[in-house]
Amino acid sequence: MNTAASGNDALYLSALKNAWREAGIDIPLSTADGATPFMLEAGTTDGCVVGLDPGFNAEHFAQARQSRPDVPAFCSEYYPGWLTHWGETWQRVDTPAILRDMEWLIQNRKSWSLYVLHGGTNWGFYAGANFSDVYQPDVTSYDYDAPIREDGTLTPKYWAIRRLLSRYREPNAPRLPDPPPPLPAISLPEFAMAPACSFWNVMPEPSQSAQPKPMEQYGQNFGFILYSTYLRGHHHGKLTVTDLHDYANVYLDGKYVGSLDRTKKKQTLDLPRTDPPAQRLDILVEGMGRINYGQNLIDPKGITERVTLNGMTLMNWLVHLLPMDSTMISLVPDHSPGPWLEQPGLFFRGTFNIDEPGDTYLDVGGWEKGLVWVNGHHLGRYWNIGPQQRLYLPAPFLKKGANEVILFDLHHTAPGTLRGMPSME
CA 361 to CA 126: how far, in whole Å? Predict the structure, then answer.
């Protein structure tokens, strides 16, 4: 059982253990806790092995013995890589340090598990987030600087770990098998993406709220949500969203006037004076990754409290749910001309043809911020602040002949292009 450093719910842990036992799962159970007194006290539970998260030196294991002297301990998660947030450089974990820690574990006869050996992908909306003074959403790739990359490529780190482990094998042990060959990778020549419609063209019927609420309170867990109200009293000035989770486009009478960004602590915007005075305010909010660790673990999406204009609380909202799920994406037309196409918040369509499927990376470097679907498969988010500029597109998502791409961009309005590259970098 994994336990977080952010909670101390012993009843929950005990209920999990009992549920598994009652279901006939009769195997050794463990928790996963940091090697500190408070984490071990809050996270361990009777009948479970102590998993140190991580544990890779004598001090860590001494702490486990002090906390639970009669219970075995092992390293439940050793990190050969790490995750990356939007706006950072790619995380790179030092291979010599990894080898030193692993050698200590081997020489001291400790059991351990790598988290993770093989990197992966946060498909769709499933990338998480952290919080350290500011909100830190994770990139779509979960490559994690792992020994085996997102697409299965074996890295120098993999071969270094393999060599280390080989030194500790029994003298007469069978020869280690060779790894499988790399998966075929392909390039996709540049192909055109044309505006198809605005999010306004696929808008569902709204519900009414005196005050805006997070999307979860309307029954939606992921995607976007649009809050709309008619202005009375104040029609321009300082707009404040309390609190924005996580990114928003703001429109006055259907015209884009700016964006808000939780990662920059930007939750205010000056609404311009217009003639005649603006009547309608629309706030299109994107929920990004949910915080999965620490003080801010409870992380609803959308507008979590209220909106004010020059200090006046704005009332009476129309709320449109935009889950960006397969049902909603199926409503995107081939082309829907109209005035909305002049404003940010557009869907784009394009196709490419291939003779044979193969792994590739969709290069979105010419776009700004949004989502991509290929043949109905949601590849995840992109954002031009980087570091990720290519989204993993595995061969099983492709087919011989024509392949369809739908892209939603919060800011890009002109026709653009995409291409496929055989690697992330």
Answer: 19
* DSSP 3-state of 207: strand
CB atoms within 10 A of CB 270: 11
Cα 319–379–373 angle (5° rounding)?
A: 65
- Supply the DSSP string of 66-78, one letter for each residue: HHSTTS-EEEEEE
Helix (H, G, I), strand (E, B) or coil at 265: coil
pLDDT digits (tens, 9 = 90+) for 115-158: 999 999 999 999 999 999 999 999 999 999 999 999 999 999 99
What gap in Å lies between CA 32 and CA 53, rounded to an integer?
6
Q: In 3-state terms, the chain is what percent helix, strand and coil (to 5)?
A: 20, 35, 45
- Domains, the chain, ordered by start: 188-194+326-421 (2.60.120.260), 211-315 (2.60.120.260)
Q: Bridge-partner residues for 408, per DSSP?
A: 347, 371
Give the C-alpha separation, 137 to 409, whole Å.
Answer: 18
What average pLDDT does the segment 92-106 reach?
97
d(CA 30, CA 23) in angstroms, rounded, equals 17
Sign of the dihedral defined by the CA atoms of residues 107, 108, 109, 115, in that order: negative
Q: Is the pTM of this model over 0.90?
A: yes
Token pair of 159 as six digits = 């071969």
b/e sequence 36-73, b meaning 16+ C-beta within 10 Å: eeebbebbbbeebbbbbbbbbbeebbebbeebbeeeeb
CA distance 381 to 373: 10
Q: 58-64 contacts: CB < 8 A, separation 24 or more? A: 58/108, 59/35, 60/35, 61/35, 61/108, 61/110, 63/35, 63/36, 63/37, 64/35, 64/40
Cβ distance 395 to 182 under 8 Å? no
Tell me the three state secondary structure of residue 106. helix
345: left (phi over 0), alpha (psi -120 to 50) or beta: left
Task: Tell which phi-psi region holds residue 254, choosing left (phi > 0), alpha (psi between -120 and 50) or beta.
Answer: left
What band does 5 get if pLDDT is binned at 50, 70 and 90? Answer: low
| Mean pLDDT, all residues of the chain | 95
- Matching residue, tokens 């012993």: 10
